[in-house]
Amino acid sequence: MLYFARWKIVLIILVLVAGVIVTLPNLFSAATVQAWPSFMPKRQIVLGLDLRGGAHLLLQVERDSLVKDRLQTLVGDVRQTLRDERIGYRNLRSRGESVTFTLREPSEADRVMQLLRPLTNPVQSGLFGQGSVSEVEVSRDGAQVTLNLTEAGLEERTRSAVEQSLSVLGRRINALGTTEPTIQREGDDRILVQVPGLEDTSRLKEILGQTAKMTFHLECPEGDVVSAQQGRPPAGCEIVEPADPNDGPVLVESRARLSGDDLVDAQPAFDQQTNTPIVTFRFNSRGGSIFGQLTQQNVGRRFAVVLDNKYITAPVIRSPILGGSGQIEGNFTVESAQNLAVLLRAGALPADLTIVEERTVGPSLGRDSIAAGEIAALIGTAGVVVFMVLVYGLFGVFANFALICNIVLLLALLTLLQATLTLPGIAGIVLTVGMAVDANVLIFERIREEAKLGRSAINAIEAGFSRALGTILDANITTLIAAFALFALGSGPIRGFAVTLALGILTTVFTAFVLTRFIVAVWVRSQRPKTVPI
Amino acid sequence: MPFRIVPDDTTVPFMRFARWGFPASVVAMVASLVLFFVVGLNLGIDFRGGTLIEVQSQSGAVDIGSIRQTLQPLELGDFEVQGFGSGNEAVIRIATQPGGDEAQQAAVQKVQDALGFDAYNYRRVEVVGPRVSGELAETGTIAVLVTLVGVLLYIWFRFEWQFAIGAIASLLHDVILTIGFFTITQIEFNLSSIAAILTIVGYSLNDTVVIFDRVREMLRKFKQTPIRGIIDLSVNQTLSRTLLTSLTTLIALAALFFFGGAVIRSFTAAMIWGVFIGTYSTVFIAAPMLIFFNLRPEKVAAPEAAKKPAAS
Question: Which of A84, A459, A525, B201 has the most CB atoms within 10 Å of its CB?
Fold first, then answer.
């Protein structure tokens, strides 16, 4: 146990030196480290949001909004199909997660089922394309036809909605100009957004929370708002409420002539005459020509710009707009104009997102936490170090050296793995300090016992190390199980705690069992002790 | 020069004490459970949903009364304002607002509008919506259960089944008494409390395994000694290690408690409690279980050639 092959000695020393080098950058500020020559390591421990400050938002894709969207399209598709084939129907409507209608001529049912078949065609699902799901099931009960959205189809929609939302949110957040935001999928239908260093989250929330589905509608050719509000709006028309509560509702065609998808650019600007904030936009070529035709043919009619089911502005078209670009004059502030431009550029979200969890930490609290954690770590370590020397004398010094190396290696591992250090993570380190010496205590106590049994010093030391090993392993593996459970089921800060706890166990076993043994071996060799000084 | 924390050849008749300790623990566990069901935990927003806002006064000591008055007219439902950390900070807790996730966000906005950004610095805003809070409670419970099962399997694999039962009994004891601790102190129970429970489980287990290891070794060495004597011997032999490790861990935890800042103080308090009961439960719960489940008679007398000895 006390003999070390030369290559092992070299390896131990290399590990320690590497540990020190990797840990080194953490002692300096990021700016200082960046100025170091290129051969020096520059990686520092990644601090969690609770230590560096920042926003953590958990967003959920609203399944209901997806279902609603899906049903709306489905109703449209069915209507189109039936109309094209001149098939009579009534009561076409959506209910729950299905669309139903009744045929006027039950005899046409078979033909209708045939015609609706394409709607049930499976769509490709999954990245690997091996699975394909039908989104719609058609069934018939006499003259009544029901189209059901399938569970698998909705799951697939949710999955792809999350996927699309990730990139849309990415574009939106990048427009805020913050550094290193992370946007990642969480579970089936959630997205985790983390923006370090952001203190005022209200703008972030405004930008993330909006679906930003923009559509352009012409005013309804017949009927007026008042009678529509009392009775029913004319076929194909609907009432749209204003975004600004000072305006009144307008009656527009349900059909959108153009949508935000047709935009290629949007910028905040100022109106040259009134000097109020506006948003200018440019259509792509297809959108531009539709817009041109539209404005040419409908001079004098109103034209509503609708954002998330509320209209921002509904000006009267005075003259054809042919260049493919235009401007929106809402009741904007400078900031809301900027936000809208960002949203239009980034595109619409495929579904509504709701913030289901928020954790924001201001930079001052983060700084205080780091400072408090550092002080606690220093005092805790100092206390343990003094205690060990008091109890074990020279061997306590050995244990302390191992303890310091343990901390250095733990920090080095955290740096190398770029694992996130959180406040509970710091607690994990301090706790590791307290518990790490356990391994040494086990060994030393064992040596003491063996010496008491009358063994020679070297024999006792040998036996102490080898007999304590099994205990140390058993004891640490069980703790490791707890750490894994914490990691698997915890989130954010808790996960950080689990990581430091688990890494701490690894470094502890190494330092106690390899390093301390090595030091003791060197000591035994140079001093040739007759008795064990513990 | 080094000193001994426990004199050599200490022979404390632990198992005689366990005759009292064991029933006392059962009573304490029942009491904890009763308290848990009658009084309940002071659940934090992680599990109950709601909003927590930590504000720091920009002008010295924070005036809790004035914050309360400012928030009163906002119709936030149940809310409380408490001093936190040093004298300059306060924590505002708001119960879940009716009206789903968006309503929670609106509440934060209302508070920030009312208090303004000049007089106060918003150190921390945590909003846990009604949908998430239920899940967090669920995963927390699962985490604790998964750990217990994992440990059960590991110890079963490495020792005899009686050891596994003993370890699990002592872990359940620790978990239940820690919940009792949270109920009595009414310290907020949140996600980090779950982490504290799991760490306590890890620590207590560490302690249990060390003594079990020794028990196993002694069982092999003294084939005629009754189990009671074996346990007493093992606990005494490892006593100084038990105390030393508890002390170093407590030193580290005390440093965290006093200097680590207010955010993790409740976590540390629970851990300190855990070190005590974890150490206690090894001797007074885990070990007596070996007697109770008749570890000795015919079982160990046979040589264990099949099992690979770990500690010898």
Answer: B201
Is there a single domain that holds both residue B180 and residue B35?
yes
Q: Is A457 in contact with A387 (CB distance < 8 Å)?
A: no
Residue from A394, A471, A508, A509 to probe the interface with B (highest B Cβ count within 10 Å):
A471
pLDDT band at A1 (very low <50, low <70, confident <90, very high): low
Select from A437, A471, A481 the Cβ nearest to the Cβ of B248. Answer: A437
User: Cβ contacts (< 8 Å) between A424 and chain B: which residues?
Assistant: 192, 195, 264, 267
Quick one: which of A145, A464, A497 has its CA closest to B199? A497
Sequence ranges of the domains in chain A: 6-48+364-527, 63-148, 215-331
ipTM associated with this complex: 0.84
Work out the average pLDDT over A286-294: 88
Does residue B298 have a pLDDT over 70? Answer: no
Residue B123 and residue A361: Cβ atoms within 8 Å?
yes
Instruction: Reply yes or no on whether the pLDDT at A380 is more than 50.
Output: yes
Question: Mean pLDDT throughout B70-82?
Answer: 87
Q: Classify residue B265: in a domain, yes or no.
A: yes
One domain, residues B163 and B264: yes
Domain of residue B289, CATH code: 1.20.1640.10
Q: Do B244 and A360 touch (CB under 8 A)?
A: no
- Is it the case that residue A418 has pLDDT exceeding 50? yes
Q: Do the Cβ atoms of B129 and A205 come within 8 Å?
A: no
Contact A369 B263 (CB under 8 A): yes
DSSP calls for A447-484:
HHHHHHTT--HHHHHHHHHHHHHHHHHHHHHHHHHHHH
For residue A393, which phi and psi values (nearest 5 degrees)?
A: 60, -125
| Dist CA B210 CA A474 (whole Å) | 8
Within a domain: B175: yes
Give B-chain residues touching A365 at CB under 8 angstroms: 54, 56, 123-124, 263
Q: How far apart are CA A306 and CA A251, in angstroms?
A: 12
Number of domains in chain B: 2
Q: In CATH, what is the architecture of A63-148?
A: 2-Layer Sandwich (3.30)
B 50-109 → A contacts, CB under 8 A: 54, 56, 100-102, 105, 108-109
**Torsion of the alpha carbons at A258, A263, A269 and A274, rounded to the nearest 10:** -20
Token pair listed for A75: 């109703």
- Is the model's pLDDT at B9 over the cut of 80? no
Residue where a domain terminates, one of B89, B110, B128? B128
Average pLDDT, chain A: 85
For residue B31, tell me if it sits in a domain: yes
Average pLDDT value for residue range B176-201 = 90
Decide if B287 is inside a domain.
yes
Q: What topology is assigned to A215-331 in CATH?
A: Gyrase A; domain 2 (3.30.1360)
The domain A6-48+364-527 belongs to what CATH superfamily?
Multidrug efflux transporter AcrB transmembrane domain (1.20.1640.10)
DSSP E strands in A62-153: the ranges are: 89-95, 98-103, 122-125, 131-134, 136-141, 144-149
pLDDT tens, position by position, A431-484: 888 888 889 999 999 998 888 888 888 889 999 999 888 888 888 888 888 888
User: Which chain A residues are Cβ-neighbours of B264 within 8 angstroms?
Assistant: 423-424, 427
Return the percentage of chain B with pLDDT > 90, whole number.
32
Q: Is the pLDDT of residue A178 over 80?
A: no
